[in-house]
Amino acid sequence: MANIDLISLSKTYPGQIRPVLDRFSLNIASGELVALLGPSGSGKSTLLKLITGIERPDMGDIHFDGKSVLSVAPNKRGAVLMFQKAYLFPFLNVAENIGFGLKVMGESPKTIRREVARLLDIIGLPGMEKRKPSQLSGGEQQRIALARALIVQPHLLLLDEPLNSLDNTVRMNLQEAIQRIQRELGITTILVTHDLNEAMAMADRMALLINGQVAAVDQPMRLFQQPPSESAARFVGITTFLKGSLAHGTLRTDYGNLVVNTNGHAANSALFAIRPEHIQVQQHPGQNAIPGKVVGCMYRGEHIEYQIAAGDLTVRARVPMPATMVPHGENVFVIFPPEYLFAINEQFVRHSSTT
Amino acid sequence: MKALPTYIIRFLLYGVLAAPLLLFGLYAFSEHWFFPAFLPKDWTTAPFTRIVMDPQTGNSLAASLGIAILSSLLSLLVGFPAARTLGLRNFRGRQVAWLIFFLPTVVPPLAVGMGLNILFLRLGLAGTLFGVVLSHLVPTIPYTIFTLAGVFASYDENFEHQAWVLGATRLRIFFNITLRLILPGLVVAGLFAFLISWSQYLLTLLIGSGQVLTLPLLLFSAISGGNPTSIAALALLFVLPPVLVIAASARYLNQHGNTVREQH
What is the DSSP letter of A299? Predict the structure, then answer.
């Protein structure tokens, strides 16, 4: 358990021009679970390798409890990484795999046996000591890998998309298991994932990693509801952005005037955004309504997903069920309730790479 | 219905492979086998035991074994880092490195042997067992590198990273993880090197300068001597160790080759 400071880390791989990480800074409090979320190639795995010491940063520093660990070798750092694949040593059985970390530290066989049994209990697979990795299911392999990481009582647990190759039910089970164990043991954890739902479900805080930098970091709910920047907004599934000039609580856009909560926002040009599930679709006009035409509608079970063309703007809206389905081609009004429209402070930079 | 042709083909193949050995067997354990007789008249183990008991045979067998084992171990030692780098890393000049390692297999051995001979004479290695071992590395190293590079091409370094972050030292990772994971590949590569060194004639002759007598050299001189019984007996003796080595490693690979199974 440790307080982790990642200070302005930069890393460029040889032969590449763009840095994988570009002055990346983040603080992780002791016992906290921070999810690191970003598109593939955004440097998430590289960051974990820097923290463990498998790779070295070009610049920047890593502090565990205020002390730099850059000169500490990976086998002494106490930051244990768990990969997408379980990487159980195929020639060792389950008990030998879990006990590996203790064995290399020279613990006695008795202690190792006791600790292995305790860890198997914690991960919910008691009595599996003698099995071979090849006899285990994917989910079981990952549980064993988790036990093997936890047995050394690491300062920091790093999870590199550990659930990605598992099917949905197993995945949900393991998400709950990891969260429970993490809370019980109070172990500082960084979870790397590109699955927004997983990050939101498991994390105390969520950091968005875009182009090698932290684009946003906050509690999942706040980040999901009111992302601070356009790229962050796109990452959490917001696709409707309204640009216009702001005057007296009214946003003048190309599509019409909208009433907004300004919250002291004084700039005369402004960008507002809204989550797709907050947009209403109806067939009669109203406040903050923009006329449009249904160009796509999909029934998704819990909601209907509309694509509505309003001028050159395509609005994606999620209307929760029950609702009547407005067919394709129909003229409708898109309502942007003022309480859900929020300002984005970032300047109008379009990140074409983020989707 | 389909079984019959495969049987015939199989039988023919085995026949073709076994025929020379069978013939050697007949020659080695008989005397006075002359033309019109279909099979030898007098069966005897006397000439075979005479050749096997001959101290020269024993010495050359020991020399052959020693040289083959030493040069296969040495070529594994040299080949391992090269193969690991070639298999796992992408670097500038990788193709050139491949070419250089591949070169000894294309350059005529006679040219290499003459050059080495001159060099080894100066270094005082000509005519020594160690000199012969070193010269055998020329043809064995390319094969160990190719075999091991293939193993490393499908090798996942994250096994090592995993052990590392769990607290293992580099030395421990090498012996407990890396070697364990690639052991089947090491066995195959070592086997190749052993067989190549075992049947090496030219380099032993040139570098050994007649002082280092291995089984192939003995066999050649027997062939020029023209006594079919001693040729046959020596040939059988020459074939036996590789067959034993191959059988043992095939057995090992059958048991352990599958342990490194793909997870998930």
Answer: E
